[in-house]
Amino acid sequence: MYLLMPAFNRISGKELVFDLSNYHIWKVIGITIVATLAASSIYPALLLSSFEPLKALKGKIAARVSDVVFRKVLVVVQFTFSVVLIAGTFIIGKQMEYIRSKQLGYDKENVMAFFMRDMQGHFDAAKEDLLKQPGITAVTRASDNIINIGSQTGDTYWDGKGKDETMMARPMAIDKILCLSLK
To answer: Could you tell me which of 146, 127, 126 has the C-alpha nearest to residue 138?
Structure first.
């Protein structure tokens, strides 16, 4: 994981960190090792405990039906898990590709958003100061973060709306300048 983390971060667009000094990681690693060792040693232990060397020497060993069925079930379960994991990997890859290439309706490369607590009365002064900075072309305000809108409503109305028709909407108040630049 430590070696593959930079590749994962580049592919996913995230900045995850694999910190070996975190005791939670060591707890997960320890539990995984103990569970793997326990699971991988139970079947051979049961198989060897039922082994009768005298019958083996006389050539009278016959595989029991339950042993054969158990092995076949294990093979089928392992195959199923591998197919599901491979398919899941391709699906997640396509979803990540879609997320990275989806047009959001604005140029997100040059957008900066930050929270201004109790600044409604001082927004105009802050806007003027920001517009004096080189490279800033527009400043606007919104009632919520443009990337993560928290509120939603299903109580919407439009002309021609059917009685049983509903649509979830995420309302957000935005200054006029941003609405014009989104078009």
So the answer is: 127
